[in-house]
Amino acid sequence: MYLAGTIIFGGGPVVIPLLRSYVVDPGWVSPRDFLLGLAIIQAFPGPNFNFAVFLGALALSHTSYTSPAASSLLGAVLAFIGIFAPGMILAMGVQSLWRVLRTRPTVLAILRGFNATAVGLVFTAVYRLWEIGWLTQKDSRGRSLGGDPWWVVVAATSFATVRWFHVTPPLAIVIGGTAGVAWWGVVQA
């Protein structure tokens, strides 16, 4: 979590693929639990960094050092410190220097470049989640949502309604969730 907190630029969506590779690949958290936790955490306010706390609790819940509740609490606290400490240390360490540099044209140009890079990282993160976002009985590691035209329609409709028809993002999420439940009902029938 500390490494993810150290190298993150662009906000919460960028950290999700990093966290997945750090906790799913070693086997600490199952791909299914990761995606379910991600879906649940999106319903709560606050930054996506809070997802790291959930993953820390889940990763240590299966250890035999102490009781599962104590292990989960320890994992949550360690993950919280790990993900938030780098940003807080950097903010406190550079604050006085920032007051001097923030109005210089060169620094502003560099920050614009960081901003453009962050947009690219967010796009990359969303694409990586798109590629592993569909869990099936046969493939619990995740499949690409692009494999079924239904999900392409849901994603395109969600984007279009928010972008051009000024539907609020929470309403677009509810509509997308309803479309997912409808798809599940058709497949299960």
Explain briefly what this protein structure is.
Helix content is 72%, strand content 0%. By secondary structure, it is mainly alpha-helical. The protein has two domains: 2-134, no CATH class; 148-189.
Helical residue percent band? over 70%
Low confidence ranges: none
- How many strand elements? 0
Portion of residues in beta strands equals: under 5%
**Into how many domains do the coordinates divide?**
2
Overview of this protein structure:
The protein is mainly alpha-helical. The chain folds into two domains: 2-134, no CATH class; 148-189. It has helices spanning 2-6, 12-23, 31-41, 50-60, 68-101, 105-132, 149-163, 169-188. Helix 2 packs across helix 6 and helix 3 runs antiparallel to helix 4. The radius of gyration is 19 Å and the shape is flat. It starts with a helix and ends with a helix. The model has no long low-confidence stretch (mean pLDDT 81).
Task: Write the SSE topology.
Blueprint: H1 2-6, H2 12-23, H3 31-41, H4 50-60, H5 68-101, H6 105-132, H7 149-163, H8 169-188
Helix pairs in contact: 2-6, 3-4, 4-5, 7-8
Key descriptive features of the protein:
8 helices; mainly alpha; 189 residues; flat; 2 domains
